[in-house]
Amino acid sequence: MINEYGQYKPRYGDIEVQKIFDVQGDHYQLMNVGWHGNRRLRGCVLQIDLKNDKIWIQHDGTEIGVANELVEWGVPPEDIVLAYHAPYKRQYTGFAVD
């Protein structure tokens, strides 16, 4: 998924798309880093962790929603945690709580 989204470079500025893979720690990120004119840009597009046999979406800056895409690919919703929601709100998401 990181590789798929990492193919897309913003149309503006001199932006480098960085794919970060911590395979030992099971942490994965997609970052945009660079300049738009005189303005420095740095931001996380996507951050995913693998924890307790589940996919924890820590940040999702995509338009489509990574969790929905994972479900379309056959990942059961109970294996996906929307970690960017407070723990008490997760029970209402239709995905795993923890």
From TrEMBL:
Superkingdom of this protein's organism: Bacteria
CDD domains: XisI-like
Annotated SUPFAM superfamilies: XisI-like
UniProt xrefs under Pfam families: XisI
InterPro entries in UniProt: XisI (IPR014968), XisI-like_sf (IPR035943)
Transmembrane segments: none
Protein name: XisI protein
Species per Swiss-Prot/TrEMBL record: Moorena bouillonii PNG
Taxonomic lineage from the root: Bacteria, Bacillati, Cyanobacteriota, Cyanophyceae, Coleofasciculales
